[in-house]
Amino acid sequence: MQQQVAIRRLAAADVDDVTRVYAEVLEPSYISFSELGEGKAEGFSKLSPNAARIFREQLVSLLESSQHGFFVATINDEVVGFALASIQAAEAGHTECWLDDLGVSHKWRQHGIAKALVSQVFAWGAEGNAAYYLLESGVRNESAHHLFESLGFQPLSTVFWREGAK
């Protein structure tokens, strides 16, 4: 029997459930530039033990921001996925929409939930007159790359990383 997926705005009551999904899906291949910069990673392949706590704190602090569109996917009122997006003014004067984070519980992958969440981000970005959509992804996060390409995203640049002196 096919379960009905509902996509809606993330509410304050969803923060712990979204953090749970985030912690479930977080793995070293997930690491990208933002995880390093935000303290969620301690190098190219090592996650910080504080990653989920940092994620939760960021989520709570941005929940009411009009520049952020946070969405959850639910099945029978259970949060099974999330998408976090932001609208920003580019230096050139137009608006860009960033897909900042996306996660779907392992149990519910391959059910179209990530695509439904990203479609909601596209609609939200269109309401904000986004000229284009951007995201970053860990170089080894190949399954996510396939999803993003199926949604029309194309690789744009590569960020190189090198550990500094300790």
Walk me through the structure.
With about 170 residues, this protein is of the alpha+beta class. The protein has a single domain, classed as Aminopeptidase (3-Layer(aba) Sandwich), CATH 3.40.630. Helix content is about 30%, strand content about 25%. The protein is built from 5 helices and 5 strands; from the N terminus they run βαααβββαβα. The chain has helices at about 15-25, 35, 50-60, 115-125, 140-150; strands spanning about 5-10, 70-75, 80-90, 95-105, 130-135. Helix 1 runs antiparallel to helix 3 (about 50-60). The longest helix is centred in the last third of the chain and has 15 residues, at about 115-125. The mean pLDDT is about 90.
Short recap of the structure:
With 166 residues, this protein is an alpha+beta fold. The chain has a single domain (5-150), classed as Gcn5-related N-acetyltransferase (GNAT) (Aminopeptidase).
List keywords for this structure.
Aminopeptidase, 166 residues, alpha+beta, five-stranded mixed beta sheet
Note the topology:
Layout: E1 5-9, H1 15-25, H2 33-37, H3 51-62, E2 68-75, E3 78-89, E4 95-104, H4 113-127, E5 130-134, H5 142-150
Parallel strand pairs: 4-5
Antiparallel strand pairs: 1-2, 2-3, 3-4
Helix pairs in contact: 1-3
N-to-C order of helices and strands: EHHHEEEHEH
What overall form do the CA principal axes indicate?
Answer: globular
From the alpha carbons, calculate the radius of gyration and give it in angstroms.
Answer: 16 Å
CATH topology call: Aminopeptidase
User: How many distinct folded domains?
Assistant: 1
Per DSSP, the total helix count is 5
Which architecture name does CATH use? 3-Layer(aba) Sandwich
- Give the low-confidence spans: none
Strand content: 15-25%
Q: Helix/strand-derived class?
A: alpha+beta
CATH homologous superfamily name? Gcn5-related N-acetyltransferase (GNAT)
Biggest β-sheet strands, sense, barrel: 5 strands, mixed
Q: Tally the beta strands.
A: 5
* Terminal Cα span: 55 Å
Mean pLDDT: 92
Return the CATH class: Alpha Beta
Q: Can you give the helix content as a percent range? A: 25-40%
- Describe the strand arrangement of the main beta sheet, using strand numbers: 1-2-3-4-5
